[in-house]
Amino acid sequence: MNRSSCARYCARLRRLVGLTLAGLLLPSLAQAELPTYELSIRDGHFTPAQLQVPAGQRFKIVLKNVGQGPAEFESTPLRVEKVLSPGVTTFVVIHPLRPGQYPFFDEFNPQLPEGEILAQ
Fold this sequence. Notes:
The protein is of the alpha+beta class. Helices cover 24% and strands 41% of the residues.
């Protein structure tokens, strides 16, 4: 076997091993879907005002701006902010939290009450 055919053989073998590993890992990744919570924002008001989540576990928050103007989901302790135009749905993934309360607010409406995530 010459050098160029050996290189082609090795490249095919690496590709085959990679595809095999991907086939083994993808089903387990699909089963490990993140717990998901929905949060609507309407003109600075959050519904629900409190999300209760398990401590020590990553999770996803689906954010929906159902108001007439822009909204921003922001939390200083969580180090996250997401701006949403009217009618937009998006999400944020939150790292595992220690038990406690984590406030969030709408930067466009700072005069309104904050919401909170309660990790238990």
